[in-house]
TrEMBL record:
Gene3D superfamilies with a match to the protein in the record: 1.10.30.50
Cited InterPro entries: HNH (IPR002711), HNH_nuc (IPR003615)
Domain HNH nuclease, chain residue ranges per copy: 19-72
Keywords: Endonuclease, Hydrolase, Nuclease
Domain of life: Bacteria
Protein name as annotated: HNH endonuclease
Sequence segments annotated as region (Disordered): 78-106
Any one GO MF annotation of this record: endonuclease activity
Length: 106
């Protein structure tokens, strides 16, 4: 699916999104997906759980704070793709040197 070539504001990423991101960074701090998996990773991407293009809202209940790796994996999954290389059943890399696995093997 090709993303429309419109401004970030037209796609719903305007001032309200910027404020929500600042709120998440100040209150949540850690990547929520990594936290669910028992890892401690700073988050810095305000992610819509259900994408705006698929009917998601700008409400707090539709936001989560993610790290870059988790955001990338979610984006790939939404496009029906997987990360390059071997992955487990949940789509996460099996390579122990991959950033997602460093905490488990450190």
């Amino acid at each position: 699916m090709a993303w429309p070539r419109t401004s970030r504001h037209a796609r719903g990423y305007g001032t309200a999104h910027d404020k929500m991101r600042a709120h998440l960074l100040a209150t949540v701090i850690l990547c929520e997906e990594c936290t669910r998996r028992g890892r401690v990773t700073p988050g810095h991407i305000a992610d819509h759980i259900k994408p705006l293009a698929q009917g998601g809202t700008g409400d707090r209940s539709n936001y989560q704070l993610l790290c870059q790796d988790c955001s990338d994996a979610k984006t790939l999954a939404e496009k029906g793709q997987t990360a390059r290389g071997a992955t487990d059943a949940s789509g996460f890399p099996t390579d122990p040197t991959h950033p997602w696995n460093r905490a488990r093997h450190a």
